[in-house]
Amino acid sequence: MTSDAPQQPPCTKLTAAGGVVYRWHEGQLQVALVRKADSGQWRLPKGQVRQGESLEEAAIREAFEEAGLRVQVEGKIGQSSYTYWDEEAREQRHKTVHHFLLRCLPGQELRPEPEVFTEAAFLSPEEGARRVPFDNEREAILTAAGMVGRPPLEQGTTTRPTPAD
Q: What total of structural domains would you count in the chain?
């Protein structure tokens, strides 16, 4: 028996991890974004999870590979899934992205991955949320800002600085 139903193109399932890399700079919360060379889009650092790698390990690796930053995982923000057509592979792909809250370790400087990203920047969460083109990344940035809370106490002080309005 044959079916007259059209053939569905193959659908590859992908798992990615990354997240919102943050730091405190002069009492202000900042998040790291990288700008893609091919599209000019500002994005959060993320990428495919390698075989045998945990989601957290992948997020740490991607922050270093894409933005040049060493980070520490502080928690899970959430995950999002979407389906898209990969023209080069000629197939549909279903991707699940796991977003983590990633604290930038002290003394790190942004170094975007050459040939993949043209630049990287630390921005306020509000500016970062305005620049990313996708709702899932915008939501991750704003959720991360709520998770971080207030700046840490500076060495030698006993009170926290009041965030500027």
A: 1
